[in-house]
Design goal:
With about 400 residues, the protein is of the alpha/beta class. It has 2 domains: about 1-55, no CATH class; about 75-230 and about 260-405, Alpha-Beta Barrel (TIM Barrel), CATH 3.20.20.70. It has 15 helices and 12 strands. The strands form 3 sheets. It has an 8-stranded parallel beta sheet. A two-stranded antiparallel sheet has the order 1-12. Strands 2-3 form a two-stranded antiparallel ribbon. Strand 10, helix 13 (about 340-350) and strand 11 (about 355) form a beta-alpha-beta unit. The chain is globular. The N and C termini lie far apart (about 80 Å).
């Protein structure tokens, strides 16, 4: 009797049993569509136990946890690039075309990669790139990203113009170095207001982004026809997303906010920007030279992580020619495709003063919040130090083109 009672106490309740049964029916592929759950885009046979926080060893470990933690549309917005995603793939492939030259290894403990960019002192030449809408990734959003960055050796962060947390609140929510992003605005009063908000909140530099000219991130059939991507509203209006046919540039997904940037506009806003101004989205030596001529304080070599223009070059390929054109007159920062510390070392060897991390930090925030961001950055920092030590480089000054052999052509 006692054993039977113990068995009864350990068994699940009827309510739990019914709930589990309902879950099985709801996920069955042949269940009526009106009651079916969203199908997992990855086969069940591929699923294994998700690793824990202490098991995160590389940046790639964070992506599956982001995938598990957020709705598919949120993941897709981060994961995908423009068009056929040629440029996004090329960003990663380019690192295979750059070899690190073996050197006489040094003790990793002697490696000091501290540097300074536009008055910001950094223990490592790594920054958090601007990226939109972080609250859907984690409730702490942009403030969590900044806290994680600050905890990782005071890593600087650039806040996206498309932040889901007000500029002022993010500025007040931490102490680490903070720069702000600005997209050109055809309304001069609105543009001035945003610039003044950024400067007035204590941001120590402004990033004018010019590489989002005409791209669209529609991916799956759900995103295209049902408006499933929260970063893009459903097309048209009425039931099923149907509405009036698009006309003009809208037929090609180019909004009125794009395809109009001019150098004169940059000159005009330069007059009201009191902090260092950097231009993000430079991919040619000619544009880099013009940036210097127009008084820009820094250049960010970027193709928006393959989200700007498909079939363009990787940033790593064009970095050397831009460095040669600038001739050290302004600092050069780069991004797009960096996933390992060795990747960062290659970018530095080709002339970058610092590297921005975008998708990787989003993976980490979605996976574990601020602690995840801290761990991701510390992993990348450690990998960078180990790569530098293995190639015999112990300071930023010692990292130069002799460290790499390129095969871009």
């Amino acid at each position: 009797m006692i054993n039977r009672e113990r068995q009864w106490m350990r068994s699940i309740s009827r309510r739990k049993a019914m709930a589990r049964l309902a879950g099985v029916f709801a996920s069955a592929p042949l269940w009526p569509s009106g009651l079916s759950a969203q199908q997992d885009p990855r086969p069940l046979s591929e699923h294994v136990r998700l690793p824990g926080f202490d098991e995160m060893m590389t940046s790639f470990d964070f992506e599956p946890l982001m995938f598990a933690n957020v709705p598919l549309a949120i993941y897709d917005y981060t994961a995908h690039g423009d068009g056929a995603e040629f440029t996004k793939r090329r960003n990663r492939q380019a690192f295979e075309w750059v070899d690190l030259a073996p050197g006489r290894a040094v003790d990793a403990k002697t490696v000091d990669l501290s540097t300074e960019v536009l008055g910001v002192k950094m223990k490592f030449p790594i920054m958090v790139a601007p990226s939109a809408a972080m609250v859907p990734l984690h409730p702490d959003g942009e403030i969590g990203m900044r806290k994680g960055a600050t905890a990782a050796s005071n890593t600087p962060m650039i806040l996206s113009a498309n932040t889901t947390t007000p500029f002022e609140k993010v500025a007040a929510g931490g102490t680490g170095p903070l720069w702000g992003q600005f997209y050109p605005n055809r309304d001069p009063d609105a543009g001035r207001e945003q610039i003044e908000r950024i400067q007035g909140s204590g941001y120590t530099a402004i990033i004018v982004t010019v590489d989002q000219q005409a791209s669209v991130y529609d991916r799956t059939a759900q995103d295209k026809h049902l408006g499933g991507n929260p970063a893009r509203p459903p097309r048209g209006g009425g039931a099923g997303g149907a509405g009036a046919a698009a006309t003009g540039p809208a037929r090609y997904h180019a909004t009125a906010g794009r395809l109009w940037y001019t150098w004169k506009y940059l000159d005009d806003i330069r007059k009201i920007i009191k902090v260092p101004l950097l231009v993000k989205g430079i991919l040619t030596a000619e544009d880099a030279q013009l940036c210097v001529e127009h008084g820009v304080d820094g250049i960010i070599v970027s193709n928006h992580g393959g989200r700007s223009m498909d079939y363009g070059p990787s940033t790593l390929e064009v970095l050397p020619e831009i460095v040669a054109a600038v001739k050290g007159r302004v600092p050069i920062i780069t991004d797009s495709g960096y996933r390992r510390g060795a990747d960062i070392l290659k970018g530095l060897a080709l002339g970058a003063n610092a590297v921005l991390l975008g998708r990787t930090t989003r993976w980490a925030l979605a996976a574990f919040g601020a602690p995840g961001v801290q761990r991701l950055l510390e992993i990348m920092q450690r990998e960078l130090v180990e790569a530098a030590a293995a190639t015999g480089r112990s300071t930023m000054k010692s990292i130069d083109t002799s460290l790499v052999k390129t095969r871009f052509t």
